[in-house]
Amino acid sequence: NNTRYSRPDASDDEVMQACRSADLHDEIMIFPEGYDLIVGERGGNFPESETALDIARGLLRNAPIFILDEPTAHLDPETEKRLTDEFMRLLAGRTVIIISHREDLTRLADRVYHMKQEKIHVYQCKNEINVQIETDTDMRNIPSPGMSIIEKKS
Description:
Helix content: 25-40%
Largest sheet: 6 strands, mixed
Order of helices and strands: HHHEHEEEEE
Number of helices: 4
Oligomer: single chain
Strand content: 25-35%
């Protein structure tokens, strides 16, 4: 199954527990194939749960660092808030790096690196207040202006 890609030797119980933790188990069991379902490209049968599947894989592997690239790009704001709050609860005690164009995700961060117009601005985040701590680092060779890298340490 797709979750087992992160740890091929995992038992069925370990896979199911990782999926339960990522709130995927019930969604998987809707399908007659259950855990034998082939998910497909970019979440396939689980388009709104692609990030949950990635988190289940990381939990199964016991990864100390999670890198989530545009984890909420396809979600409405209400679903985004609900899922990000749940994922951050699950990932407490781990380093989480979120790459996103959505500034709403900065509420999760301890530190935000915002790249724009060949410059990087670093903000220390406390209690939803961003304080700029560094600015004007030259980033002329980085092609994605306007991208934020959000760093969360627990």
